[in-house]
Design a protein that fits this description.
With 437 residues, the chain is of the alpha/beta class. It contains 15 helices and 17 strands. It folds into 3 domains: 168 residues, Rossmann fold, CATH 3.40.50; 162 residues, Dihydrodipicolinate Reductase, domain 2; 82 residues, ACT domain (Alpha-Beta Plaits, 2-Layer Sandwich), CATH 3.30.70.260. 37% of the residues lie in helices and 26% in strands. 47% of the residues are buried.
Length: 437
């Protein structure tokens, strides 16, 4: 049978892994796909390196547009990244009737609606398993494996860099700055780690998962995003004393009046499996009505784990290459004309339990003032930890865990607590999720 011809845009870490795995497992992949899949053209600015990696087995060019316009190419793999040139290339590939496989979560989170609409109009597929959680097949699981379910919520550790930093802070008592430097030294963090440590990368990914889980448009601009840069070793230690671990989570939930969509450091009970995911590993919990809670764990990045997801998409597209477009799996799990217009809730309306850490003057009546303020906002206390001041100091640290409340109520309480003459500095606030399915 005629092979499927693939054009590869970018042969860096993931592109090189894709070439290696596809070559190594060619026979097995062909048996699964029903026909050979071959990369016949590669575009990369470093043409000499591309030539060396491919050994002359593919046409090499420095012009990616040359590949997307090649009439002999059936599928384009976009591994360039970013929002600008990548978008132009993907849109032109679609306009030329080519299927697209991409690992570019940023592109899809921001321009996904435009791209999916163009693909549907042209009758081609855009596959993006590699865009979320690397080698973990979470897109396929949510979009197809759980299709019988009404999904209630998803919570995931979907950025390995931040998970490594938090693991090092907990295990070794490092400061955030020292743990970040360590991650950069080992190659787990970029020279400019902003997208990772500020939660943007995780927000791109949870945006896509929310769209697939709930049948809503891709809405990256509605995600509430907080990173880990303000976390201290003290907070990680206090959480541990109370039986919790802190992880950067991407969370999306179905609520009666809308959907929650947020990324932030989160306390999780230490007994939960996801709380024990360490280092650069990723994990996603999906809670649905029929199956309950399911956990997906594995490598969220790296050459071959991500290549595994890219090639799985290649096989899927190859199998459905000649299928009627109306009978393919929809890009976002639900048919385009069936997407919900239910709103994303603002963070002020989100419901969560909370961890509060505050420093106060060590004198009578202070604790009574704080508990009165919480009671005025209908916030009940679940647990409290008081750290007595060292000899000679007059300030104590108080840690409070609350029961579930609405964010705007905790905001109002914090404002009043910070206004007390006995409060020193600001109140540290972290959200807490039981994730008990």
């Amino acid at each position: 049978m005629k092979p499927i011809n693939v054009g590869l845009l970018g042969i860096g870490t993931v592109g090189g892994g894709t070439w290696t795995v596809l070559t190594r497992n060619q026979e097995e992949i062909t048996r699964r796909a029903g026909r050979p899949i071959q990369i016949t053209a590669v575009a990369d600015r470093d043409t000499a390196r591309a030539q060396q990696l491919t050994g002359g087995a593919a046409r090499i060019t420095g012009d990616a547009f040359d590949v997307v316009r090649d009439p002999d190419i059936d599928i384009v793999i976009e591994l360039i990244g970013g929002y600008t040139v990548a978008r132009e290339l993907v849109m032109e590939a679609i306009a030329n009737g080519k299927h697209v496989v991409t690992a570019n979560k940023a592109l899809l989170a921001v321009h996904g609606q435009e791209i999916f609409a163009a693909a549907q109009a042209k009758g081609v597929m855009v596959a993006f398993e590699a865009a979320v959680a690397g080698g973990i097949p979470i897109i396929k699981a949510v979009r197809e494996g759980l299709t019988a379910n009404r999904i209630d919520w998803i919570a995931g550790i979907i950025n390995g860099t931040t998970n490594y930093i938090l693991s090092e802070m907990r295990d070794k008592g490092l400061t955030f700055a020292d743990a970040l430097a360590d991650a950069q030294r080992l190659g787990y963090a970029e020279a400019d780690p902003t997208f990772d440590i500020e939660g943007v990368d995780a927000a791109h990914k949870i945006t896509l998962l929310a769209a697939i889980a709930f049948g809503i448009p891709v809405q990256f601009d509605r995600v509430h995003i907080e990173g880990i840069t303000k976390l201290t070793a003290d907070d990680i230690r206090y959480a541990e004393e109370l039986g919790y671990r802190i992880k950067l989570l991407g969370i999306t939930k179905r609520k009666a009046d809308g959907f929650e969509l947020r990324v932030h450091p989160t306390l999780i009970p230490a007994k939960r499996l996801i709380a024990n995911v360490e280092g650069v590993m990723n994990a996603v919990v999906v809670n649905a009505d029929a199956v309950g809670a399911t956990l997906y764990y594995g490598r969220g990045a790296g050459a071959e784990p991500t290549a595994s997801a890219v090639i799985a998409d290649l096989v899927d597209v190859t199998r459905l290459h000649t299928a009627d477009p109306e009978h393919r799996v929809p890009h976002l799990a639900f048919r385009a004309d069936q997407l919900s217009d239910t709103p994303i809730l603002p963070i002020s309306e989100v419901e969560s339990a909370y961890y509060l850490r505050l420093r106060v003057e060590d004198r009578p009546g202070v604790l009574a003032d704080i508990t009165r303020i919480l009671a005025d906002q209908s916030i009940s206390i679940d647990a409290m930890l008081q750290k007595e001041p060292p000899e000679g100091e007059q300030q104590a640290t108080i840690i409070i865990l609350t029961h579930i409340t609405r964010e705007k109520q905790i905001d109002a309480a914090i404002a009043r607590i910070e206004a007390l003459s006995s409060t020193v500095g600001i109140v540290t606030r972290l959200r807490l999720e039981e994730l008990n399915g």
